[in-house]
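Hi Prof. W.,

I finally got the LacI family DNA-binding transcriptional regulator prediction working! I wasn't sure whether to trim anything, so I left the full sequence exactly as given:
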Amino acid sequence: MADVARLAGVSAQTVSRVSTGHPGVVGATREQVLAAMKQLGYRPNSAARALKRGEFRTIGVILFTLATTGNSRTVEAIANHAAEEGYAITLIPVASPTQDGLLGAFTRIGELAVDGVIVIMEVHLLDTATVVLPPGAQVVVVDSDAGDRYTVVDTDQADGARQAVRHLLDLGHRTVWHLTGPAGSFASQRRADAWRAILTEAGRPVPEVRHGDWSAESGYRAGLDLAAEPGCTAVFAANDQMALGLLRAFHERGRRVPDEISVVGFDDIPDAASFIPPLTTVHQDFTEVGRLCVQAVLRQIRHEITEPGTSLVPTRLVVRASTAAPPA
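And this is what came out:
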């Protein structure tokens, strides 16, 4: 900084103000300092500034996997919105979804020096019914049932499932079969509960649930089974990847979609419109989930207050060519 000040013919304080974006520097002087910085290859020392200010401009993100569509797109949205606020993110993967694994991640987060934490907790912990986070942590939780104790942001999973099932019933289908996700998943559980509730309220038969693991392969295996069910005319898959597997299985077994059987997915991944046929699905607004997470954790960082409660991001049904009235 002293070298830049000498070359630009200004004080070190002026260089500091320019490097931090302080508005109180006239245009010509700012350009002069920036030119000196470029000539000398000067870069502000973020670590030194963090020590001086007591903030690191970094948000830690703890998660159990990046393999699922929801997690990867949520992390992308968090990173983008954090960057807009001048923050970076640090990812901390947890190998096993346990209370000890979660607390170990918070220990590592402390060593890495972050200002706040977002926990993407899409599955139930294996060793406890109730998650416990370190007291005093500035933390927001995604996709959990901990809204009575922590700030939680989630997609309105239940309403999305309700929209999917009602759409199929409104088309005239007698009932709707369901391909659910992993047993420990909060999202899978909420979608299955809503599917069952809508059928029960409508006085329709509730078929036996088929279980998948979010993968297209698990959807394919379930589809081979469902293709042999003569009364199956509509299937609600808990995500688009499993719906893709269903479409392949129905094609191989000669069950035409949507003429003989309708399929609805969940997520609205970018490729859903390019499936054959284009997939009717429930759209999740991952961008808004990420924005709300970042805004919530920044409020805690800046005001040191915790706001227990759950913010639900609305979903919407996107109707394409994979659904139609049942065969006569």
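The longest helix spans residues 286-303. Does that look reasonable to you?

Thanks,
D.
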